[in-house]
Amino acid sequence: MSDSHALEAEPLDAEALLEFAERIETLSPDIAAWVAPLFQECLRARLSEAQLLADAGSPPATASAARQDCDAELAQVALDVAEWLKTLWDVGYMGAGSFPAAPRSAFPRIELDDVFQSALFARIRQGKRPLPFPPPTRSCRPWHALIEDEEFAQHVEAELLYDAGGRPLGVQIEADTGWQFVDTDTTAGMIVQHRGRGPLFRLEVTPPDARLLRLPADHHQPIRLRERGGIRSFTLEWSLTGPTTSAVPLRAATWERAESEAAHWIATQHPALYGRVAFLRADDTVQ
Questions:
Q1: Which of the 8 DSSP states describes residue 147?
Q2: Torsion angle (degrees, nearest 10) of CA 214, 215, 221, 225
Q3: Beta-bridge mates of residue 155
Q4: 72, 58 in Cβ contact below 8 A?
Q5: Is the sign of the CA dihedral 89, 90, 92, 93 positive or negative?
Q6: Residue 139 neighbours by CB under 8 Å, 6+ apart
Q7: CA–CA separation, 161 vs 76, rounded Å?
Q8: CB-based contacts of 15: which residues, under 8 Å, 6+ apart?
């Protein structure tokens, strides 16, 4: 194909893009490792092009403007799908059906129902980040509220397993077998955590009822706001996992975004402490 013919070719439509995404799913992991990021970068370029056209010069005709809006929306959907599939590939859950599965396993066939039923895909479409680890499930569905609600307290279905001596061996909560005991000797109830990651909870069992309550943060770390040369920056001062304090730069312009970025960093780097750290605001710009 000549270069001139390639330049005159029509841009790929949404159906063609989805076909490419499906073909990427069938590639071997070593090839998909570089093809998938390249494909995502092409989608970002498509989205940027649509945004530039929308912002350039005088407004286009109504029909043309509507088409640009549609193209931008389709591009965003494609980016969200790419993020969804990347989470499934790297983390091992997609928020629908029989997952979690082992990360980087044989890529499963995804049906239309998986898209409509996926709590993770709905979460990504709302502009929220996927967790870097599978969350607890309730009736085989991702239970994000359990991880994100700092005041979570609900009645649950729990089944305790005991050894021959009557000591608790494990617990199944809302049909999820991933719960682990952290402490079973407290007078206020048993302390549990899901697969060693995320917040701690107190499980109160009084048969036939059970209640799950999230424990407050048991660690505090400062987020520091500094200003140099008119540039404001946020930094998390981390001292929980080493002999010295580490300064973690946060990409944020507000306190709320800084705390969100700090929480995501903890989830990625120290998942056992995610949801267990409260942040202290230290404003060095105040004279």
A1: H
A2: 40
A3: 211
A4: no
A5: negative
A6: 174, 175
A7: 46
A8: none
How much is the pLDDT for 4?
46
φ/ψ of residue 105, rounded to 5: -90, -175
Q: What is the rounded CA–CA span in Å between residue 171 and residue 127?
A: 34
Residues in the chain: 287
Residue type, 70: C
CA 140 – CA 97 distance, rounded (Å): 7
Q: Are 93 and 85 in contact (CB under 8 A)?
A: no
Read off the pLDDT of residues 195-249 as tens digits, 9 standing for 90 and up.
999 999 999 988 889 999 999 999 999 999 998 877 889 999 999 998 999 999 9
219 Cα distance to chain centroid: 22
Beta strands in the chain (DSSP E): 137-138, 141-142, 153-155, 158-162, 168-173, 179-183, 190-194, 197-206, 209-214, 219-228, 231-238, 246-250, 277-283
